[in-house]
Task: inverse folding
């Protein structure tokens, strides 16, 4: 029987509990979103004592299923004001699951706002330890110190930005080599963690493992799934993601005219090649970065799309240059210098910032005159300012929406106050529908229609054609909600969309662990149930169809090179929820 | 036939037009709210080219009706994101009406964002004049220069805060002696004006006057109304408002435990006496301020509740120390120094800031650690920072909600992102209902239940008793929507609530001007129609019943001295709109 660990920060008490029956068989996003619906007042302040922060590994997380080291963090978002599930791949997820915890919950607020705590978790439960020495510490030093103190534990924490309760703050986790590099980045949950005075959580690795209802079935599925991943061009060893990292998308999106440039003024970046995944791989090799490509975010991943970027002398600079970060801190700012981008990612990792929101915010700041586009030195300094907690740092640190308001900028690429990721909705309509309608605010991972629109994976869909994109996004969003609950990395879907046997295998692993008999139909049904649940919370929190809208300028400004606006009407967008 | 003046800032064109039939007989808030519903896209950016700014005098503005020099400014609010009507008493209103303009509309955006324009209006129409010399100029100097250039015109303008598109920016008008002191303060419409590049509007005073359908009826009504105003304790010459100004309320609210102190931590300010209206009157006399009390905001006012505050040497410092400003920049900040409060009002008037939002924001800033409560020097400096346009200034200048977010403060007394005025909702429940449910965001003038709850005017209603407050607020809000359309100052209602003949007289003046035969029932019906219209816009703009909510802390923190929370439930609040 799985257990919960509930931490009451008002009383400074930790207790294990048996979850209610209604939570049986839930995991990841399904669990976090259901829990928030049941236990969090939609009207609460995201940084107040009534918000709760929940961590939940997926169904199969902690098992030997390939690419399944995911954890969902959930709460009311300080950034969007709605529900938030932000997931990450990290050994922390696996260790938590192997200790038998279905969920870990932080609630209440400590009386002493200046104190910092470490929550130490093992199979027996948890304890809160005062840790004033960690106050204001960057995530790199935080992880180093905690390892010195606690040994080979897995760690999650919030950086100085989260301690300062900034809405751009994510939750940081270690990677397999203890780098501060894996993130539940989006939506500001690092600020919620900071508001609760929990600087870090350390988890012992000695868990007995994940109970299985049918381990034979699990093994059958595991093999099929691994086989599918090993045979798909996108996910296979030596394939696109493994060889070049996610930044392989830079050239692809640029060629499609969908790589947002200079705060979404164009879909083309003439210097894209300089920051492309292929260039990263070349340069890593040139600098002697042995083993720095094809790195994994958590043990047991087949895809291994992460990387480590070396300095010119071959020593490690940062992990990792993800496509989204490469775009947000590069193309979006007219910056083509990978070392500058790497430095910005390093700062984000250390301060505890969402790299997407950081780059989108810097784009708005440049639009507002705080720096010239292309000025990487100034961009780096603006990011450092966040850590200084100055008024300027507090503007930047609270995201693109607030920065736009503070500076009086009208071209602000956000939906539900969350910055848009690395795909231009005017050039790729389906992902636009996802940005606009997702319960999460603008989020590509909520319904990654890029697969058929750009990558010809799971069929083909003309990115410029508005027809059918509402249905496409709806199906992707529902499927994703299930995948986000399973513990699998979303990237397995590249293979599953093109492999029936892989999809079957995925279901068999889930059924093997849970004792369920889910079919393909259940995937969609459960996904839709989760979406509706999230939508219900958002509505009660004040987010309506009027918040399912694209920024005004994207309906008016034609985007080069295709010279298109976003044409899908509000009425059509509203139909996404007709199910 | 009344005409409109429409200014297209994109084309830099000004044209007179005949309003459509549907606008016949409309004025003030009725006209601005109907116009916004008809012509402004609820999804538009408040600082973008699709927002429009409309000015409309009331039905009887420009006539000799007593206390009727009011103008409504309307648009989509940069502060609340919803509809906004913000009205002011000023000779500008009267001059506009006498020139025969029912409305003056600014729309579009100029191509050159750095240019500034003056709109000059006379009975023939208007012209746009480039005025680069006014860029960034404070409102005092702006009015001085415009008078030098244009003579005895009436003036409205936006200060440096509005030019910087800050959501705390109001629209400033001259008083009868050309002081920059009268404000459509609330909701940030000064930023909308600033976004359109219109620094100021100058209006000639030579208008032929307001056409009347039945001038005899008007005169009959005018006498009855004047009589009622002259005989009511609150409004009569030598009465409470005339003798002590609106700050007469300081002691009254303090005694009722409803004067918010230190960012709404208590309803009592021990030093209230030091900033009370009675003290102001004494001190003005002591300093030799002959004629500085009982001043009027516009010619023809019977009530004359404005004042001028002198420095210690008797020379003029600022006009005026209104109750709301006295509270927001005084009691709310634990500041009991009238000279410091006067200096802050002066800064607000000059920069073009809403004094209520300014004080509420400083309270939140103090809560967030930017200054100690009670530190008037630091408070003054924080306000000056707004004019400097620094990052800190941009935080403060964008209001309490944004400041709370930037600083991670959870005790933020706003509704729909607009700062709460000078009455504690936990101690005066009816005004709380108004704050929460008003289409305008937290706004006392939207339904001033203080009359029966605190002043025993128009009946009596126990301020601490939640019973019946939804109905009370609804009736007040509806009546107010009519009064805000009439051109009358809301303060005439003190007399009308206790005088049938006065109320009759008010209606006769309106019917005399418009040729209507409105009755008391029509007042409520029209008022409700206006409210529904505004609500409709807000819903389309994304404001729902989830935005008709009191800040969470007011439901949890018991407020001294009565130790009460705000008890009226969300369900009860939602019933306000059941009509």
Result:
């Amino acid at each position: 029987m799985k257990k919960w660990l509930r931490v009451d920060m008002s009383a400074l008490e930790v207790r294990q509990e048996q979850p209610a029956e209604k939570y049986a068989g839930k995991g990841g996003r399904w669990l976090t979103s259901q829990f928030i619906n049941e236990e969090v007042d939609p009207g609460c302040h995201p940084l107040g004592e009534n918000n709760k922060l929940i961590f939940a590994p997926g169904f199969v997380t902690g098992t030997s299923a390939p690419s399944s080291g995911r954890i969902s963090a959930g709460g009311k978002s300080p950034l969007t004001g709605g529900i938030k599930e932000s997931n990450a791949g990290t050994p922390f997820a696996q260790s938590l699951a192997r200790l038998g915890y279905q969920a870990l919950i932080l609630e209440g607020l400590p009386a002493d706002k200046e104190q910092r705590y470490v929550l130490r978790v093992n199979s027996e439960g948890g304890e809160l330890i005062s840790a004033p020495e960690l106050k204001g510490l960057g995530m790199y030093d935080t992880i180093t110190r905690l390892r010195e103190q606690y040994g080979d534990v897995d760690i999650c924490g919030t950086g100085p930005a989260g301690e300062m309760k900034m809405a751009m703050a994510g939750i940081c986790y270690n990677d397999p080599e203890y780098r501060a590099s894996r993130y539940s980045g989006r939506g500001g949950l690092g600020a919620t963690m900071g508001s609760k005075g929990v600087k870090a959580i350390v988890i012992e690795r000695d868990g007995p493992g994940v109970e299985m209802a049918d381990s034979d079935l699990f093994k059958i599925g595991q093999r099929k799934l691994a086989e599918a991943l090993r045979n798909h061009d996108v996910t296979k060893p030596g394939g696109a993601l493994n060889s070049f990292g996610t930044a392989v998308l830079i050239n692809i999106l640029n060629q499609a005219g969908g790589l947002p440039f200079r705060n979404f003024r164009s879909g083309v970046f003439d210097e894209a090649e300089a920051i492309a995944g292929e260039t990263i791989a070349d340069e890593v090799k040139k600098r002697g970065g042995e083993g720095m490509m094809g790195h994994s975010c958590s043990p047991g991943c087949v895809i291994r799309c992460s990387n480590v970027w070396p300095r010119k002398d071959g020593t490690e600079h940062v992990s990792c240059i993800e496509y989204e970060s490469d775009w947000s801190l590069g193309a979006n700012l007219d910056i083509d210098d990978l070392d500058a981008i790497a430095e910005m990612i390093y700062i984000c990792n250390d301060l505890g910032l969402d790299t997407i929101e950081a780059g989108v915010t810097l784009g708005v700041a440049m639009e507002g005159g705080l720096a010239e586009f292309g000025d990487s030195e100034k961009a780096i300094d603006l990011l450092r300012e966040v850590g200084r907690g100055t008024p300027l740092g507090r503007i930047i640190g609270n995201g693109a929406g607030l920065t736009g308001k503070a500076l009086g900028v009208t071209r602000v690429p956000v939906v539900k106050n969350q910055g848009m990721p690395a795909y231009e909705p005017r050039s790729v309509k389906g992902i636009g529908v996802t940005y606009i309608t997702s319960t999460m605010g603008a989020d590509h991972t909520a319904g990654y229609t890029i697969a058929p629109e750009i990558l010809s994976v799971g069929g083909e869909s003309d990115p410029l054609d508005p027809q059918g994109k509402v249905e496409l996004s709806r199906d992707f969003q529902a499927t994703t909600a299930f995948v986000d609950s399973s513990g699998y990395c979303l990237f397995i879907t590249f293979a599953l969309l093109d492999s029936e046997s892989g999809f079957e295998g995925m279901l068999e692993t889930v059924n093997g662990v849970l004792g369920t008999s889910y079919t393909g139909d259940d995937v969609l049904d459960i996904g839709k149930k989760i979406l509706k649940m999230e939508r219900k919370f958002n509505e009660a929190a004040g987010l309506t169809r009027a918040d399912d809208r694209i920024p005004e300028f994207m309906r008016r400004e034609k985007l080069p090179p295709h010279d298109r606006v976003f044409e899908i009407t509000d009425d059509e967008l509203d139909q996404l929820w007709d199910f």
Notes: The first helix of chain B runs from residue 28 to 39. Chain B touches chain A at residues 42-45, 47-48, 50, 164-167, 191, 195, 390-392, 394-395, 398, 402, 405-408, 410, 539-544, 546-547, 549, 551-553, 570 (CB under 8 Å).
